[in-house]
Amino acid sequence: MARNKTLRALTGESRIENQNKIAYLFIAPWLLGFLTFVIYPFFKTIYNTFFKITSESIGLTYFYNLIDKGGNYGTAFRNLYFFPQLFDFIVMEFTYVPTIIIVAFILAVLLNTGVKGQGIFRVIFFFPVIIMSGPITGILYWNGAGSLLTYADNIIFKMILSYSPQLAEALSGLFGNFTMVLWFTGIPVILFINALQKINVNLYEAAKIDGANGWQILWKIKVPIVKPTAFVCAVFTIVQLGTYTGNPVFYTIQNSIYDRGGGIGLASTFAAIYTFVVFLIVGVAWFLLGRPEKIKKVELSSIQRINMEALAQRRAEQKKGTVTAQ
Amino acid sequence: MNALLQNVRARYDRAKAYVRGHKAKVTHVVAQIAIYVFLITISYVFLYPVFRMISISFMSASDLVNPEVDWLPSKFTFANYAIAWKVLNGTVSLTNSIKFSGLMALFQTIVSALTGFAFARYEFRGKKLLYTIILLSFIIPVPILLITQYNMFNEFYQLIGRTGQGQGLGSYDSQMIMAFFGQGVNSAILIMIFVNFFKLIPNDLYEAGKIDGASPIQLFWHITIRLSLSTIVVVFLFSFVWNWNEDYVTKFLVGDGIDLFTNQLGKFDSLFSTRTTGLTHPDAGGEIQLVESFKMAATVISVIPLLLLYFVGQKSFVQGIEKTGITGE
Q1: By percentage, how much of chain A surpasses pLDDT 70?
Q2: Same-domain check for residues B311 and B186
């Protein structure tokens, strides 16, 4: 039977063949850009790490140098600045990200309690997202506008300092720049509020009937439900911190490009190692927050089970009753 | 006297009884106050750098070194702003910043909308894979891409003979090309905002359009775009702000070629010495201290356009982030 065009448009099968072409047309610019400006550079830079590259008048010339003292990787490991800076970066990520996530979550929970003026607070917490750029955070940081707390004279800080200088250093990095750290919470706060508002109110009601207090509701309902959001926020923050002025690795990579000695090969190696570290940190975040939660089996006592069964039976009878009534 | 005491006692007892009777209410009020105190404190910490910045930007050199002047300068003067404007090359930088951020935002919005439409409306081969790749591409650090991008553009410009002052790598062309192909700042997020919004448009509208014989382009224009003007504004604003604040990629691909607010601010110190020669400031104190207040004035200047945008489109920004729908789905 010959179907007319309208009918064909409405049925599923013929649509799919057409859709492939149309959809690819729509994503063509993006796909093209993605292949040339993301996929190709990504692998090209990794490929670059195996060569010593010098810039000649005819273009770039490549010398394979991996065997010679570990090539670029060897040079990178022997570099006096790169690995200490990378280590600083890792410390920064591991102190900043948990702080940002926790502060953002606390702010979101408080804003979600229905305080008046919620809108004003949201405007305040979000506005750093709008003005935050490398130079501005840099200027505010160097002028000490970021440090608000005089942590150095604090007795607890001195105790930590005598106990472990490394920990104290990490903490001073955090508190010395606490305002700037807070400025990263803008987007996480909004995401958390959004996630909290999506929680079904019935869950709270049910918990309250079972005698749960606010604290238990927070830990047993809110925290598990917003965990996926926390993962999104963590990834977002990790990426944002990567482009932050306080990140020491960035400028080492940039400067090494113009450096005659190492050249593009060494710069690529720095970038590749840095990328690997960032992926590793995202992996850690996924391990801690992103994995789907195992559903615990609830053990019911015999009385509870009898009650539940009785309830189910009654419900079934009611349903039957309504069906027959109709 | 006794009567007064009794009166007070009675009042106290009544208050106590009230508290006992309305325990829940009282705890609620106390909790509310605690929450407000906490939120206001945090807000203060948030805004502290901005207040500090504005306060310093009005200070003269003598105010900066004067320990008695903490927040309020001894006299308000816009002199710092005038000098900061000159150092920033204000008029040129402002026009350039607006022009380039606007153009980049326009390109990004268009391409993200097209891409988002395809992902939201159609089922095509490799859709899931590509969408996952978009999400993953967000976490690829910029330097690893930039090195090769820089070389690519360098070769490209040499090939077409666009090298020299204000051309090729000294111009905004490279970033423009990348934005045009959907690879600007945070493109992944913009695409996600569009995908999630376009998914909300009921399928019936498209079916109706198809029955009337509309082509995919017409469907896209007359249904999707017409219905999502607010989302388009959101994406444009975000893109604009992010492009405005972007400085790392610009430093690589543009260098000193073009004066923009953000990159001028980044090298304020070196610009200050070259652009203010011949300017004598009435109270020349410590050199570094002097620059500080000009620098703060320059920072305020470069932030004002963004703040204006934020106070106009404040709701859009917050909604935009909510619309990404990346919260767990």
Answers
A1: 80
A2: yes
Sorted by where each begins, the domain ranges of chain A are: 17-70, 80-290
The reply to whether B11 and B106 lie within a common domain is no
Q: Locate tokens 């219905």: which residue?
A: B227
Asked if the Cβ–Cβ distance from A195 to B145 is below 8 Å, we say no
Within 13 Å, how many C-alpha atoms sit on residue A186's CB side? 22
Give residue-wise pLDDT tens across range A127-173: 888 888 777 777 777 666 555 555 666 677 777 777 777 777 777 77
Positions of chain B with pLDDT under 50? 282-286, 288, 327-329
Residues of A in contact with B125 (CB under 8 A): 20
Q: With a cut of 70, say whether residue A72 has pLDDT above it.
A: yes
Q: Is B215 within the bounds of a domain?
A: yes
Domain for residue B329, yes or no?
A: no
- Interchain CB contact of A20 with B (< 8 Å): yes
Give yes or no: residues B200 and B318 share one domain: yes
**B212 residue type, one letter:** D
Cβ contact, residue pair A195, B248, below 8 Å: no
> Are both B93 and B146 inside the same structural domain?
yes
Query: Hey, of A14, A20, A38, which one would you mutate to test binding to chain B, going by the most B CBs within 10 A of its CB?
Result: A38
> How many Cα atoms within 13 Å fall on the side-chain side of residue B310?
19
Q: What is the CATH number of the domain that holds B313?
A: 1.10.3720.10
Burial string for B60-77 (b: 16+ CB within 10 Å, else e) reads bbebbeeeeeeeebeeee
Alpha helices (H) in B276-313, listed in sequence order: 287-312
Give yes or no: residues B20 and B97 share one domain. Answer: no
Does B243 share its domain with B143? Answer: yes
Whether residue B107 sits in one domain with residue B25: no
Co-location of B149 and B46 in the same domain: no
| ipTM tops the 0.85 cut | no
The nearest CA of chain A is from the CA of B110 a distance in Å of: 10
Count Cβ neighbours within 10 Å for each residue of A64-102 and write b for 16 or more, e otherwise: ebeeeeebbbebbeebeebeebbebbebbbebbbebbbe
Classify residue B78: in a domain, yes or no.
no
Q: Which of A207, A209, A229 is nearest to A218 (CA)?
A: A207
> Which residues in chain B are closer than 8 Å to A182, comparing Cβ atoms?
42, 45-46
- Domain housing B36: 2-57
* Residue B314 domain flag: yes
Selected residue with higher pLDDT from A91 and A163: A91
| pLDDT higher than threshold 90 for residue A177 | no
B147-162 pLDDT, tens digit each: 888 888 888 888 887 7
Chain B residue closest to A109 (CA)? Answer: B35
The answer to whether the beta carbons of residues A211 and A127 sit under 8 Å apart is no
CB-nearest partner of B327 from A194, A235, A274 = A194
Is the minimum CB–CB distance between A102 and chain B shorter than 8 Å?
no
A/B interface, count of CB pairs below 8 Å: 260
CB atoms within 10 A of CB B21: 10
Beta bridge partners, A55, equal A60
Identity of residue A153: D
In three-state secondary structure terms, A60 is strand
- Fold for domain A80-290? MetI-like fold (1.10.3720)
Q: Report the 3 state secondary structure along A84-114.
A: HHHHHHHHHHHHHHHHHHHHHHHHHHHHCCC
Task: Please name the residue ranges forming H helices in A132-164.
Answer: 134-142, 155-163
Contact list in B for residue A253 (CB cut-off 8 A) is 143, 147
Mean pLDDT of the residues in chain A: 79
> Hey, which of A11-25, A59-73, A92-106, A262-276 has the most confident mean pLDDT?
A92-106
